[in-house]
Design goal:
The protein is of the alpha/beta class. It has 15 helices and 12 strands.
């Protein structure tokens, strides 16, 4: 694995000032109210131009797009549960659940269905609208699908949205999940196509896209995002967003994670003690804002890494268009802010749990009714 550890501050996203030429750079100027078009033909040059905007202008653009398509002051609450932890044969450099990681994480078997449903009921009581279940697999085995289906059906019976992340799927497995009523399937593309091989060697970027296609073809909503702060350049962040924003249909949910470096993982050990061990807060907010502008109707989720962000940084992310978070004390194997901290932050910012329908889902319901 190789990382760009000698990139310039501008490449790493820590820009002390914007070059004068950047202010006049040709690119999209989407002043609030000028367009409601959802595009899938974004160019990398246009996305790079958004990243290069002065920060206040970028936030203004993102806020305008957000207000045109999403309820003001509402943030979707989701809960994530690891239903099968550790022992994954993939070698993702960021993941403590990989067999190749020396993180001390003990592998477990698939959770009992009743235990999963109990956790879902607790999440609902805490205000979560969506319950996400993740298993550390390269791909699920057919023998596990009956239990997975039972989990999906049980959570849906509680009136919650369901999401699964189980690794790569076959066409038949995607269809099985669709019949069970799965609302969302998460499969992150992680980073740019060019940087992908630096992070993972056991599967390709195209493998990721193939699973997303199977999920979409089965009629399941797509949840796909990635991780920033893995030593990538800004060009990689541009490429990451470009890959998602040029899909035939944008993902309904776009989680943006800040790397949580875990000791014993390739990236955790490689980045420890270096300036690249944590992405610059302003650059992270820029990434959120560009995701909002390029994928206007998607839910942009402020995901992993939030527990180490200041309240001010999280507030900027919400201003930039993030309108979904994971609640609870844990995300799979890493710490999370916790329900009490989130409630206090929401009260301070005047935010409330989302009650309205997601824009892309609402569009699908309207089309089905016509």
């Amino acid at each position: 694995m190789t990382l760009n550890t000698t990139c310039s501050p501008a490449q790493a996203g820590v820009q002390s000032e914007v070059a004068p030429a950047a202010l006049d750079r040709p690119g999209p100027r989407l002043s609030p109210g000028t367009t409601t078009e959802t595009r899938t033909d974004w160019t990398r040059e246009e996305i790079a131009a958004l990243f290069d905007l002065p920060f206040d202008e970028l936030m203004w653009e993102a806020q305008g797009v957000h207000r045109r398509h999403h309820a003001r002051g509402e943030v979707q609450l989701c809960t994530l549960l690891s239903i099968k932890t550790g022992g994954c044969v993939e070698d993702c450099g960021y993941c403590s659940q990989s067999k190749s990681a020396d993180s001390g994480l003990k592998a477990t078997k698939l959770m009992d269905v009743r235990a999963v449903l109990q956790a879902a009921a607790q999440a609902k009581d805490a205000g979560s609208k969506r319950f996400c279940m993740g298993a550390a697999w390269r791909n699920p085995k057919d023998r596990d699908m009956a239990s997975i289906v039972e989990m999906v059906e049980g959570v849906r019976a509680m009136g919650m949205e369901t999401c699964m992340t189980l690794g790569m799927l076959t066409k038949e497995q995607a269809q099985t999940l669709a019949v069970a009523g799965l609302d969302y399937y998460n499969h992150n593309i992680d980073t740019s196509p060019e940087n992908y091989a630096n992070i993972i060697s056991t599967r390709t970027f195209q493998d990721r896209l193939d699973t997303l296609e199977e999920v979409r073809n089965a009629g399941i909503n797509v949840c796909s995002g990635g991780i920033v702060g893995m030593g990538e350049t800004r060009a990689d962040r541009v490429g990451f967003i470009h890959a998602l924003a040029t899909l035939e249909r944008h993902p309904e949910s776009v989680p943006v994670n800040a790397l949580v470096p875990v000791k014993g993982t390739v990236l955790g050990d490689m980045l420890e003690g270096t300036p690249l061990a944590k992405i610059d807060d302003i650059e992270f907010v820029r990434t959120i804002a560009v995701a909002r502008i390029t994928m206007p109707k998607s839910m942009v989720r402020l995901s992993a890494g939030r527990e180490s962000m200041s309240e001010a940084t999280q507030a900027l992310c919400f201003m930039a268009g993030a309108n979904s978070i994971f609640t609870g004390d844990k995300l799979l194997t890493t710490a999370n802010a916790g329900d009490n901290a989130d409630a206090a932050l929401f009260a301070k910012l005047g935010l409330r749990p989302m009650e309205s329908e997601e824009p892309m889902r609402q569009g699908m319901l309207t089309e089905a009714a016509e």
